[in-house]
Design a protein that fits this description.
By secondary structure, the chain is mainly alpha-helical. It has one domain (2-52). It is 81% helix and 0% strand. It is built from three helices and no strands. The radius of gyration is 17 Å and the shape is elongated.
């Protein structure tokens, strides 16, 4: 937030909205990945997620 402040409140708000949307989208993809790997145990899932990213 501090870095964005110098550009003004409007841009800061817009930036935060875009970041929030991007994070939400990314999290939904991660959740889909967890669902797809649901049949694996925790260790296998961890390895597969690291490989996927």
């Amino acid at each position: 937030d501090q870095i964005i402040d110098q550009y003004g409140v409007g841009l800061k708000y817009q930036w935060n909205q875009r970041v929030e949307i991007a994070v939400n989208y990314q999290m939904s993809k991660v959740m889909d990945l967890f669902d797809a790997l649901g049949s694996f145990n925790a260790h296998e899932t961890d390895v597969n997620i690291r490989m996927a990213f």
